[in-house]
Records
---
Amino acid sequence: MANTRCAFRVLGVALAAVLIGEGCGKVSGRSVSLLGSTSIQPFAEVLAEQYTKKNPGHFVEVQGGGSTAGLQAVDNGLADIGMCSRELTAEETRQFTRILVARDGLAIVVNADNRVTKLSIEKIRALFAGRLTNWREVGGQDGPVRPITREEGSGTRESFVRLVMGKERISRRALTQESNGAVKELVKGDPAAIGYMSLGLVDNEIGAVAVEGAPPTTDNVLAGRYTLVRPLLFVTKGAASPAAQSFVDFVLSPAGQRLLEKEGLVRAR
Amino acid sequence: MRVSPANTQVVAVGFMWALAAITFAVLVFILAFILAHGLPHVTWSFLTQSPTSMGREGGVFPMIVGTILVAGLAVLVAAPIGVATAVYLTEYTREGRLTTVIRFGADCLAGVPSIIFGLFGFVFFAITLGMGLSVLSGSLTLALMVLPTIIRTSEEAIRAVPYAYREVSFGLGSTRWQTVIYVVLRSALPGISTGIVLSLGRSISETAAVMLTAGSALRLPRSLFDSSRTLALHFYILAREGISMPNAYATASVLIIAILALNLLSYWLMRRFVAKVGR
Amino acid sequence: MKRDKLIGSVLLVVALSAISGLALIAAFIFREGVPIILRVGAGQFFFSTDWEPSLGHFGILSMIGGSLAVTAGAAVIGVVFSLGLAVVLTQFAPPGLTAALKPAIELLAGIPSVVYGFVGVVTLVPLIRHLLGGPGLSVLAASIVLGIMILPTITSIAIDALQAVPRSYVEGSIALGATRWQTVTMVLLRAARSGLVAAVILGMGRAIGETMAVIMVAGNALALPHSPLDPVRTLTSNIALEMGYASGDHRQALFATGVTLFIIITLLNTAALAVSRRRAGRRRVG
């Protein structure tokens, strides 16, 4: 019996210590939390690593969830900065503060073995709407077309719908994945797949098609020849907290922008 | 052409054995697949370092800490409450409509999908109560999730204690509470512990309920109010997004070994229970 | 004596808070979900396949179809393999083997669902894609993965049901000259039928609640499946995919999906309970 009492006492002290620890992080104003677009997430992570290296004692936390989830999180107070990979609606512009941190091409990706290397926007729309169902119809090998899309709250999806689909709906038979990485994995494994994702995250495991004659490179994005481009935004509610502002300043600084360029994005300025 | 019953038996039983063999082949395959790919990468540095570049390199130390905090706290909260509730239901009330209703309710809630607990926890703990994406939100959500199971298993363990034990205790002049503590709970302890250990195992494996309550931050949590990624969620993210397959397999291996250990523990506890109460 | 009463009251308070806490969850889910069902119209909500939250369309028929399809598939696999396993372990295996294999079955139950899903994605999905066509992410893949996941549940309850049949039934059958297999099919399975049905129903309850493994292998397409090779989205996957960013009506629709799941699982639980009670009733008479 005495042993159990002793154990409980130790437990109580330990619990109190951990609970008290909460004071150190959130209140001291040196922690920033970002939440939102899975397109921005890897780049935010890289920036966070650099930032904490340069500013020891600062704490940056990055989570995914999708662009709309990011806006929600900022609205609910779950995060300091929302990451958004699409343009804000009029309503959202009124609610939030918009900070452009980079620009990103929207790549149309196919399996590495797919012979198709260029498509027009019209053809892309038809493929994703389910009007064209065989790769033969766009110059590829005979076989079914399997479009892959993102969840509704994805900024990448919203940008794709705005830039390519217009009024037409994506096929209801399209497979849904919940992040850029998941789309890439699926396209990598399925020869019939076609999807859309952040250009900055494309590597040589999959193929990205040329759109309207322009190959998907950052140069073409900068020059305006590759037209599928969307903004990458940091979003805050009102003014950013000092810790958040400090991080944003780093991201917009030449060092931060250089880092983003190295990773495959297009700089904001 | 009539097939003799003896021949039918040979074929049918052979078929049944084949089914059984396939089932175990599948189990062995899953374990071997993960462990073969993952164990070589589970090094000491993997277990003690933090991840870098989104988990492509580095280790899973923050995830181990996160998992222990989230799952451990959940069980720490749910166990006393659940056992106390079970004690009350069995020792301090009569069997009747109320207890039947409560039991049915606990059974139903034990079957509710974990994603619904996740949705509830996200809206209630993280947003409404303002706890945010944190270890606290995650563990409270998980505590609610395992509470019905702990109540039910504790209740069954307590009811399995022969009434004679209680009679003897009362005969010797103890109060009800003394009987509960020194006689009933002591005998039912292994059974209760089994339920708690199983709930711990369930909490550790849980992904859907922690995704949006504990969040998915990669850093080591400094307090209960920080977000933290559990091992299961980390594995899901690494594997789903193809970030690092070796690390994914290694993470899964750590998870499986932990669960194997917990299973062995609960099995040992159950054997002690059977020995004690002689069922 | 007074101390005893005090402790009794403390326990009462704890028990009441625990129970009311759990009741709170159910109440919360219903309070958030039911209004949107009424606003959209129950017919529209449950029987329309039009799920387009950005336009305010909330029809979950596709997801109900998806959940039912993968659960039914899982039940088929569960029935075949679990019952076979239970019969073998209780009737034809030496007791030592049974004792050694039961913990192995429980181990299957402990493997996290994300591991099942991952192994399914890496091994099963490409196999289905190559051998049978389609995207591989399909009803079939989800059914197989779920079937394996609910095996331990069904097997352990089935074993209990089979072992509860009085030995006299089996011995009587053998004495009358039946082979062991004939005894199994004509006597044992029939006598344990309600318990076995209860086992399958409870397994189905588990399958319908599974989320992570299904997200990984089912494809999450919004259309109703026309064949086992078609991709599907289940009720649980829908909640998991959208809850991060849903707000307002959309979030309430997700709670309403939760209500639907709650109702389905309560129905399954009640059915299982009724079925196993009927068995006890019949035994008392016969």
Note: Residues 20-28 of chain A have pLDDT under 50 and may be disordered.
---
Amino acid sequence: MLKPKPKLIVLSIDGVPIDLLKRLMQEGVMPNLAELASHVGIRSMHSVHPTVSCVAWAGYSTGMNPGKHGIYGFIDRQPNSYNLMLPNSSNLAAENIWQILSRAGMRVFGLNVPSTYPPKEVNGILIGGFLAPSLEKVAYPSQESDYLSSIDYRIDSDAQLARRNKRAMLEDLDITLARRMEAMFHYLQKDNWNFFHTHIMGTDRINHFLWQKMEQGDPEFYHGFRDYYARIDRAVGKLLEQLDDNTPLMIFSDHGFCALKQEVQLSRYLVQTGWTIPAETIKHPLSIEPSKSRAYCLIPGRIYINLQGREPGGIVPLEEYQQTREQLTNDLLKLQDPDTGSQVIRKVIPREDIYWPSTSHGPLDLPPAQVATHDGTFGRAADLIAIPFDGYDLKLGLAGKTIFQKTQLEGMHTYHDAFVIARHVDLPTDNLEIMMLTQAILKKLAVEPPVDMDGIGKAVTPVF
Amino acid sequence: MDRLDELENQSIYIIREAYYHYKKLAILWSVGKDSTTLVWLCRKAFLGNVPIPLLHIDTSYKFPQMYKFRDEYSKKWNLQLIIARNEQALSSGMKSDRKLECCNALKTEGLKQAITQHGFEALLLGIRRDEHGIRAKERYFSPRDEEFQWNYQDQPPELWDQYKNQAQEKTHIRVHPLLHWTEKDIWYYIKRENIPVTELYFAKNGKRYRSIGCVPCCAPIDSQAGTIDEIIQELETTTTSERAGRAQDKEDTYTMQKLRALGYM
């Protein structure tokens, strides 16, 4: 008799912090997850720096730190210019987990996982998510768009709507989730999958736009917020019913969340402190005057030295790289909340302390000149990564008038408190971070990981 | 009967059906190769005298070669040409620095205005199933609602040559006589019939346009194909999509809008 191939199911839920989840489980909002967690436990997990979904999911997809996979944020610089680019999966410098498993002959499925658009060719079906522009382009193989159209599948909820009308946002989130779950159950039955991963994005959105209303027990939105999580729990219940109790399963988030006190227009602060001189007309976040700017930043908290020989109009000599980074760090740490006087930036991390290049498995002890001029994906990292205190969300705002502002956003991402619930999957016991899940999945499916992959027992991102 | 005759016959049948059913009918002519082929088929269907007006939605940003072509052939073929422009949007300075909005205002809104102004019940369009995965679900007679939305889930059945051609008030029907053609079919037919198309499709200095529209939003492809035969040969081996040169800009604009709404821009 043939031995059945191993199977692993993943359901990821974007931006859900472990404390919120525990509370909702205790209060009976998420009974199915609570039941599962009572058997297999629940753990917290570290995310990535900077803590945004595209970087976290690129880390999960590749099992590597950003220095290797090359995705550092939603926007980046085009090489050798001050032009903006919008990275997507085609900029990922390594194979993703669906490709790795496909090579090993596994049948794979992915639905809505960030950083998978445009979808790569796999042995199965890969349907991109957030930022995929249309159903006709979202799926590999492309014929899947016919099924998705037939159920009126929505790739993503509408964040513009969220800024205008929160009631309409909730309705939109519900429909998006319902169609997503319909697609998930449809595909679950369709094949004998070895690896099946579905992602829910709406929790990140509801947390961004309703976090404080939830915390304050807002009469209009408190229940809407909890209902949304309850709906997810019902889908989890249905999923558990369809799987037998021995099926390896992971449910996890990519980062946590906290209340947002202030949005910090960091580009504006760099302008005020004289580091960045904006161009005469500001068209985008990199519209700077290179001949006068010593540094500039991209969202969130990614600060670049305008280095001679590396940047097309660089003015900071290589010998001054380290000293410039130190001065800049001092200035960044001085930034204070005008209302409370409290410090905004908790830590400024040099790139080599949290990123490392291909063929290494952990931070390298490199002299500053080598750090500054390193090639490859590592060399495209920001020179400094500013980590804010919880509550201060680092934004751009090159053209902004003020450094601090408050908009419709009520919640922001946190690094230290993602969650994992894992059944029959062995995870590292210490220092768990999202990029370590990949090796654990490969191990469970008995597939040899690529040699450059980070993860268990080797590469650990230092905690600051 | 060869394949091109078969394609032609079916298209002419649909064009005549549409003309029979709708009093207020127009042909949407973008001046590209597909809609020009459609115009050619209409000329054949009505023996050289097209009794249906041609509607050109003019964004003012089309290639100069396209305007020249439009004016030359509408005269030569004795066509009733209606040129519609969303003047209000144009005078407010709408241009391609905001691509999605620009397309919406100048194309979609411009078309809506023209439909209302002339009371068109139905439009003939040169779209083809092979342009996009999503167009695989299109029908030859395809209703649009008041908001121009196309409801995938409520598609009338089309069996053999039975078409649902009645629509409710405030909606209009889009008729797609070329739905079953492929990009290559179009070029084979253009070659056989010697249909004129603008010079933009033919390679100059190693570049040609595979799909044309507004100047700021179209990119040429690398190509040495200077003749129809060379284009057909190129299409035999290409692995990129026909509209690839037109999509990227809009895709970036879409991504930026999305990121802005989420506070990432």
Note: Chain B has eight helices and eight strands.
